[in-house]
Amino acid sequence: MKGKRALAISIVIVLSALVFLVYTGLTDNMVYYYHVDEYLAKASLLGTEKVKVNGKVAEGSIEKEQLNYRFIIHGAENNRLHVVYHGVVPDTFKDKSDVVVEGTYDSDQQIFRATTLMAKCPTKYEPQQQSASQKKQAQYQTP
């Protein structure tokens, strides 16, 4: 009887620990993803919550001083978010590129403080649509 009781208690402890680890792991890594237009509408409600924001880099807005970057991302032209970032940026980070920044919003200075910056690949890397003549030609080619 004591052996079964000890086994049941051990199983309950192990399961409780697993549930706790899964719960804390998920809540710590959950980050909301917004487009600039959505984020600006909710920024005051989100406070200093860590989020990811997607937008286009405004042309001529990138300022660089060593590894410190200041730039603006936008959705609709009037929805602009000022971003500061410290670190190495990807090669594809440039004017008019799509970026995703992760960080928090400083409402006092009205600046988004990014801890992560990801530049999306330009569409020139996506395959082009084949024309009808190219499809036809591909059908007649033999391997």
| Shape verdict | elongated
Mean pLDDT: 81
Strand content: 25-35%
- Poorly predicted parts: none
Provide a count of the helices: 3
**Within the largest sheet, what's the order of strands?**
2-4-5-7-6
What CATH architecture label of the domain at 31-124 applies? Beta Barrel
Terminus-to-terminus distance: 73 Å
CATH top level assignment of the domain at 31-124: Mainly Beta
Topology pattern, helix = H, strand = E: HEHEEEEEEH
* Major sheet: 5 strands, mixed, barrel
Number of strand elements: 7
* Secondary structural class: alpha+beta
Alpha carbon gyration radius: 24 Å
Q: Could you say what the CATH topology of the domain at 31-124 is called? A: OB fold (Dihydrolipoamide Acetyltransferase, E2P)
Helix content: 25-40%
CATH homologous superfamily of the domain at 31-124 - what is it? Answer: Nucleic acid-binding proteins
Concise synopsis of the structure shown:
The chain is an alpha+beta fold. It is built from three helices and seven strands.
What would your notes on this structure say?
With 143 residues, the chain is of the alpha+beta class. It has a domain at 31-124: Beta Barrel (OB fold (Dihydrolipoamide Acetyltransferase, E2P)), CATH 2.40.50.140. The protein is built from three helices and seven strands, in the order αβαββββββα. The chain has helices at residues 2-29, 36-46, 132-140; strands spanning 32-35, 51-57, 63-65, 68-74, 80-86, 98-106, 111-119. It has a five-stranded mixed beta barrel with strand order 2-4-5-7-6. The longest helix has 28 residues, at 2-29.
